[in-house]
Amino acid sequence: MLIPVLDPKLYFCRMLQVSLIGSGNLAHQLLVALRDLTGVDLVEVTARNTEAIDLLDNDIPLNSDFSKLRPADIYILAVSDAAISPVSEQLGDLPGMLAHTSGSVPMNALMHENRGVFYPLQTFTKGKVVDFSKIPICIEASSRTGMDTLNQLAQKLSEKVTELPSNQRRQLHLAAVMANNFTNHIFYWAERFCIENQLDFTLLHPLIEETVAKMKAVGPFDAQTGPARRGDLNTLQHQLEAMPTPELKQLYQYLSNSIQNTYGKEL
Amino acid sequence: MLIPVLDPKLYFCRMLQVSLIGSGNLAHQLLVALRDLTGVDLVEVTARNTEAIDLLDNDIPLNSDFSKLRPADIYILAVSDAAISPVSEQLGDLPGMLAHTSGSVPMNALMHENRGVFYPLQTFTKGKVVDFSKIPICIEASSRTGMDTLNQLAQKLSEKVTELPSNQRRQLHLAAVMANNFTNHIFYWAERFCIENQLDFTLLHPLIEETVAKMKAVGPFDAQTGPARRGDLNTLQHQLEAMPTPELKQLYQYLSNSIQNTYGKEL
């Protein structure tokens, strides 16, 4: 009988055991991303209402009792900001580390000694599966060992993993609010303005995509165009007068003044 | 001797003769796009300072005398808004139609009887060659024949050609100012905020791209997220306090109020 010789370059790696807590949009996105990830064993999904979870025909155990969790290396608490503290209090002692997923809640909102944060910086849409590999994941942990464990998981999911303390993560979250919520609301204004003038808003889609591409390529300072940057007071006055509502006039004046102030020294 | 029989499906098409006037960024982009376009013969490029034009080793004739233009079907006047009227006055009578490329100048700023507008709705960057096929081109003409000629050229360049009268084109241009200039300035604020907090602004790039993708997929009204949309007054207050400068506080308050007003009826 021949005994096969094992390749010395092969070795056995222990699977990282991950337990997921939550049934919302992010919990679902993480479930989809983690269930088939090499080196990760999704040991359990826990939620008060287990019916809210669609396991997608996987045989991952479901649990509804927060005080009885299976052993895991990392417990990912993917619940709303307001639920982080109350839910973590119900979890009791855990054999692994507990990490929440919020951009704005401090790590110390978790009372567990072995705690951390696992914050994917992205906007998630119900029903739209995301590719985590391009999403920055910001991590924080109460110990170096905890950081290593979180880092191991984050690296498997994303190409962009960053260690950030709570205060900087909160600032990054605020910048994200500006870059997402505020710009989307301006798109809404532009759309309403188009509708009121019987114009097809989708005509602006290529422009909006190029605005972002240009901003990424040269940075927003150099990407700025328009009459406010040029200091073209004549065009500014005409455009201001053409704004149809007091709200849009105010917006136009406010943002144009800010652009003029930013570039004023250049003129 | 055999005489080849011509395929009856083949016929000879007259090339559309196009003359380009201007030496700026858009003129250069159009030169690159038009010189190799099937069915288009770029007969001449005219500019006061012909040295400003890089013909890219093509043998397109260069001209610096506005009063002596070669015959063409369409003269594209790609100059700044302020130069449209003065330059067109110098052109004299033309055998073809004259079209300017501005989003905000009325067609009637051109005194020629056979006039039109050829407005590519996009932001152009020096040195970055664009793909015109995805750029909406808005056209207008003083006659049906003129419109057909402009349409023929626009269709060769772009998949999205729209007929728009001057007043609607001006409104679309204003919507474009909002969607481009205003959002880019908000990206600038977010970047400055990151720099002040020693954060890498590029961490926000994937979020910004997803914000646009989501807005395109479901429209900006449904794409809105954040505390202002949810009416989460507690988070709004915390975020407002965290804004580091009076300018950013004012911006935050202004845009959050507007989002709250937009979604207030839903809550």
TrEMBL record, chains A, B:
Domain DUF2520 span(s) in chain numbering: 135-258
Signal peptide start and end residues: none
Pfam families noted in UniProt: DUF2520
Matching InterPro entries: 6-PGluconate_DH-like_C_sf, DUF2520, NAD(P)-bd_dom_sf, TM1727-like_C_sf
Entry superkingdom: Bacteria
Annotated protein name in UniProt: DUF2520 domain-containing protein
Organism the protein comes from: Sediminicola luteus
